[in-house]
Amino acid sequence: xxxxxxxxxxxxxxxxxxxxxxxxxxxxxxxxxxxxxxxxxxxxxxxxxxxxxxxxxxxxxxxxxxxxxxxxxxxxxxxxxxxxxxxxxxxxxxxxxxxxxxxxxxxxxxxxxxxxxxxxxxxxxxxxxxxxxxxxxxxxxxxxxxxxxxxxxxxxxxxxxxxxxxxxxxxxxxxxxxxxxxxxxxxxxxxxxxxxxxxxxxxxxxxxxxxxxxxxxxxxxxxxxxxxxxxxxxxxxxxxxxxxxxxxxxxxxxxxxxxxxxxxxxxxxxxxxxxxx
Length: 277
What we know:
Layout: H1 3-36, H2 43-50, E1 76-81, H3 83-86, H4 95-103, E2 106-111, H5 125-128, E3 139-143, H6 146-150, H7 172-187, E4 191-194, H8 202-218, E5 221-223, H9 225-228, H10 234-240, H11 249-269
Parallel strand pairs: 1-2, 1-3, 3-4, 4-5
Helix pairs in contact: 1-2, 4-11, 7-8
């Protein structure tokens, strides 16, 4: 084969490889859209989630009735978190919205999927505190992010300080302490962290242990879904969970929300300043 023929053959091979790379990239982007709602194909995930029995209209927030409890009626609750707080697998509706409907409170939901407590990733919880413009709040609830566990963010250590400038927000511990100090300083209200239910993650288990160490220092509330949620059948799990991390509408409404509502009401009743605001 002459030199021109060899060059044409090499060019053809290169073009085939490039085309394969483009196809694989497009397939990966489409898969991410279908699986996690990321990127330009994010609508694919909505179609997938909408077809799940646990996201049927009867579980929608629009169907939730007030509980009659007036502990938080008319009050403002801030929720800071990522996909679980947002409701990524439940069409944008989460326990935060269920609680708003049941307890008739005003909810500020600052939640962005895929984000972490640690500031080593963009759009972290710490960074997004400045997005919350409300000047007054009666309760601040933060998610113990599973993303920090899956991305293996450094755990860090609890400090002896209560000054925001002393916390290493690249670590999980430092970010949590910063968030607590910020919320107490800006809104002077009770601060609560909630966990995900138990799933297969040693990293997240370590974060739950860290949370209790931080609770002992700061006196914050903890909603421990890691250990507190009642056992469910496999049939119920199929209805309640879109995957190991993310609930459906039914999962929030029938499994998570009752526990969170009970814990929140008990915490608020034990907080003197909550009745004075």
